[in-house]
Design brief:
The protein is mostly beta strands.
Length: 573
């Protein structure tokens, strides 16, 4: 959560053309005249809580608070792509805020994004109030949701068949961004393109001699080499944090760890229609409402909220997928839905639940609370499903119901999806996973996800044209496994070369540090020379584009900390 508070002021550096500025002035004047009996001369305080991009990277949602309420009338959004000095409009001109703010002053606006991906971009938001003031929020980072529809899903490797996005310059180590748990492949070509001092032939040698290290959160991660040393494979887990949608795995040129192996004995095909119980979590963190979540441990993000007294907001349709469930003769599967919600008013709350437009159940509870309701369903489809939630409270209640997430539990067959399957043994001893297109399938024991163990006794059988099953023995109840094809494993979706900052070297020191944007380098250099002449070791930091990019940024940063009116842009420490 960003929670940056800024006092609005009349800025001459706002990204407004003369024609737009004139239109805005007229709009603000008209709004001001209409609101004249209630208007005051006070300048509103604005707080941006969140700028969040959805999983499809097609829409962004801005959540903010204005005090006094309802003073914001329009917004403009621009972005600056990585390695670019120019800003581009996301909105053409200023768009009016399309929802009247409640008394709390909390509101949000949604806008479409261009086709290109915007990770690493900086965003600039300009908010116009009814008095004609426009406040600029500069260098505001966006939070990107994972490119899947849930934080933890059983259908792993959603990026199968994609080309990795390799960004930035090569470095001395590689940073990979993981959104979904699964089995991943890094080719020697990709590794070489991200490391500045190594050719593809060098990387082949590093793989052969186990001199590539994979790590995550300070833990060594075991990996598997290709037979021809042209790639390495590793299992990666999605994060389970409310602060980020991605987990980071690092690849360094250093002694690495190869997966250990185990042989559990010769397996045979398991009985038909074998299943295991799976629970899949579905969650979208699209908006923030921190005022309604008073405890610091609460997750303030939610998917959608319902209000029965607003016709357009009384119901929500949430998509989810079940993967090869055990179905009956009519093609339906049974399961459980756990719906996680939060009510923020003291009234009685009523909801009705539908699965694929078929009524399931209703429920009622009372008062402010985080609530989990469990529903038994018998009409799950294999594939796409729709969960519809309808708020049916009396209109006089004025309730606000926040839908946070839901879990779907059902019996799933041991069948691969996109050439991989995350599963567990349940109570099965002999397990067969079906539906692979090649015979290079591996079985990994995930009892420790950082150091998976390869089961070398697992065997594959050809069940038809380009169709293979794999059989293995499980030694423990509920033991977790990853079963995946080596050749079909996708690369991590985002790969970056990174150069390690020499922060611990003895020469990287200074008695006096000056931080300045590019516009003030010449002036800052005079200060550095002056301090050096006094016998101090003085240095200048000028690569802070994401912290301070223009004088107004520093002014607003100081103003928000109790120094109104200061225009200081060179900060000496």
């Amino acid at each position: 959560m960003i929670e940056r508070t800024v006092q609005a002021y009349k800025s001459e550096s706002a990204p407004i053309t003369p024609s737009t500025k004139a239109a805005l002035s007229l709009l603000a004047l008209l709004v001001g005249i209409m609101a004249a009996p209630l208007a005051t001369a006070s300048i509103p305080t604005l707080r941006v809580y969140d700028l969040r991009v959805d999983a499809a990277h097609t829409m962004a949602h801005l959540t903010f608070q204005c005090t006094p309420a309802s003073d914001i009338i329009a917004v403009n959004v621009r972005f600056q792509p990585p390695s670019s000095e120019s800003w581009q409009d996301l909105l053409s001109g200023f768009h009016p805020v399309n929802e009247t703010l409640p008394e709390t002053g909390c509101g949000f606006i949604s806008f479409a994004l261009p086709d290109n991906r915007l990770e690493g971009s900086l965003f600039e938001l300009t908010l116009l109030d009814r008095f004609g003031n426009h406040t600029i929020f500069t260098d505001l980072p966006a939070i990107f949701a994972a490119p899947a529809s849930s934080s933890t899903r059983a259908n792993i490797n959603e990026t199968k068949g994609t080309i990795p996005r390799i960004a930035g310059q090569p470095g001395d180590r590689i940073k990979t961004h993981i959104f979904n748990s699964g089995f991943y492949r890094l080719s020697a070509e990709t590794i070489a393109s991200s490391l500045s001092a190594y050719s593809e032939e060098d990387v082949h040698a590093l793989i052969e001699t186990t001199n590539l290290s994979v790590s995550c959160q300070g833990n060594n991660v075991a990996w598997l080499p290709d037979a021809d040393k042209a790639a390495l494979h590793f299992y990666a887990e999605a994060t389970n944090s409310r602060f980020t949608a991605e987990n980071i795995y690092w690849i360094d040129v250093a002694p690495g760890t190869i997966m250990s192996v185990v042989s559990n004995g010769a397996p045979s095909p398991a009985p038909e229609n074998q299943t295991f119980w799976t629970t899949e979590h579905w969650e979208e963190n699209l908006r923030a409402s921190p005022l309604y979540y008073p405890n610091v441990e609460d997750d303030p993000y939610y998917w959608v909220y319902l209000r029965s007294w607003v016709s357009s907001q009384k119901e929500a349709n949430l998509d989810f997928t079940t993967f090869t469930p055990l179905t009956n003769d009519s093609g339906y599967a049974s399961g459980l839905i756990d719906l996680h919600m939060r009510e923020v008013t003291v009234f009685t709350n009523n909801i009705s639940l539908y699965i694929n437009d078929t009524f399931v159940a209703s429920n009622m509870w009372h008062g402010i609370a985080s609530t989990t309701l469990t529903f038994s369903v018998t009409n799950l489809l294999s594939g796409s499903n729709v969960l519809k939630i309808v708020a049916t409270s009396k209109p006089a209640n004025y309730e606000r119901l926040f839908i946070e997430s839901f879990d779907v539990s059902y019996q799933r067959r041991y069948q691969a999806h996109d050439e991989a399957l995350l599963c567990h043994a349940d109570t099965n001893t002999m397990i067969t996973v079906e539906g692979f297109a090649s015979n290079d399938v591996v079985v990994l024991d995930l009892s420790n996800p950082f150091t998976p163990v390869l089961d070398v006794s697992a065997t594959t059988t050809n069940t038809g044209s380009e169709s293979y099953d794999i059989h293995f023995l499980s030694t423990e109840v509920q033991k977790p496994y990853c079963v995946a094809s080596l050749s079909a494993a996708p690369p991590p979706p985002d790969i970056h070369g990174r150069t390690t900052a020499p922060l611990t070297t003895s020469t990287n020191r200074a008695d006096h540090l000056t931080i300045a944007p590019a516009e003030y380098l010449s002036t800052a250099t005079e200060l550095v020379n002056y301090r050096n002449a006094q016998g101090l070791v003085s240095c200048i930091v000028n690569k802070v584009a994401k912290v301070i990019t223009r004088p107004a940024s520093a002014s607003r940063a100081l103003s928000s900390r109790g120094f109104p009116g200061h225009r200081l842009s060179i900060c000496s420490v």
